[in-house]
Amino acid sequence: MSGGPTVLRILLGSQLRKLREARGVSREDAGWEIRSSGSKISRMELGRVGFKERDVADLLTLYQVTDETERNALLSLARQANNPGWWHRYGDVLPNWFQSYLGLEAAAALIRAYEVQYIPGLLQTRDYARAVVLLAHDGAPPDEIDRRVELRMDRQKVLTRPGAPQLWAVVDEAALRRPIGGPEVMRGQIEHLIEAGKLPNVTVQVIPFRAGGHAAAGGAFSLLRFPDQELPDVVYMEQLTSALYLDKRDDVDYYAAAMERLCVEAVPPTETPAFLRAILADLTS
């Protein structure tokens, strides 16, 4: 799967949980079987840790999975789940909490994003991305800055690959007016947004200042949906040194409703190019 190890771990964990529950085995008993704990089983079933093939084999035996085809399929999944994703080569500049998001983003069928301060990462130009990176890492050596920018550029390839996800981005007007990198960089960035909106799988909307307060005034978030029914929708919120992942149905429904209200309050997609061109005219005047 294109999502790499992140999604494979989630899928394998989900299958192991179903097998455990079908046999009425507690997490504590399962943990004992693999010389670990119930909390380790919980993390495995949520796909938040890697899998040792031996542990998976022992659990399958405990859950009385004797069919060789089924066992081999799950053990193969465990091996694949330990393969590094494309982002592994950026491990020196990539925090662990963001690696999980990259795997989910790569596997998503639909990405809905609301941004209040910056242009969404998937739609940033190289110059704009560099300006954003410098805000947080202004003391870093030039080669590290280059790698952080290159990571962001590589990440954007998800939008043009075969089977690319749908991206629906809602951007606060403040992000378009904030001169990150200076007027010239912002002109290039807004021109890029206009072009990106022409892609068949990209929709861009803007929350104008005239909308006043709105449903997501609390901050930026992304909502990801996957083609596999086994994977629940995920809400992602990034912080300065960590990130929050929500997949409980009530939480997801709350953010989905907020996103729907944002889309209603935003400039309609058909009017977004004209709105962006007006901002572009302000920058060139």
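the 2nd protein, sequnce then structure:
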Amino acid sequence: MLVDSHCHLDFPELSARINQVLDLMQDNGVGCAVCIAVNLEDLPRVLALAETWPAILATVGVHPEATHVREPTVDELVDLARHPRVIAIGETGLDYYWHKDAPEWQRERFRTHIRAARVAGKPLVIHTREAATDTLRVMQEEGASDAGGIMHCFTESWQVAEAALDQGFYISMSGIATFKNAGTVHDVAQRVPLDRLLIETDSPYLAPVPYRGKTNQPGYVKHVAEEVARLRGLSYEHLVDATTTNFFRLFPEARLKVAQ
């Protein structure tokens, strides 16, 4: 079965037609989708989806771009991560694209998430954009390797990927891998060790070819798998088996939760 390791099913583009989204997942062999939290205010919506649908799992965290939201504490994140459908801490990380002038608050928020993940014993879901050097540095300083996790929607260079792999992280490819001009992503998709590779949609964003420009959804992760398999010279079945095995290795509790 396929796993979409990162999506936002609580966003209105998808939540308003969740039954259709789940039907397409089933039709395309997607047995599990991880609904990623981006703030604490909307976390109840994320948890409600995961509580209602066995194929949906959840995370808890505050996105690095989120402003005018409640800042989490380590204790709060640890407590929320005890929810039986929560498998990870995040989405967290650093994003300097919109916040080049004042990134220190992002770094402190990131440190809080790493510390919580270490205490909770949950992997991290890390976002980095135009901040690779600081992301890797904070990860190293805070001992993120003790928690492990995913570098999601990876768009950085192979050198950054290698540094994240050295800290024990998995690299996740999104629909960007299907874009013709995404040479850096193609290079990384070919070079990441197969046992450290994951796939995702980041839906409702970044729909893969042939749906580029449209609303993305977890069922489309099939197209990411097809293209990554092509780039690596593997059969589709081999790529699916590897990435799904990797997901359940990183999140061993998830297999039982999806089966419930």
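The longest strand covers residues 86-95. The chain is about 45% helix and 15% strand.
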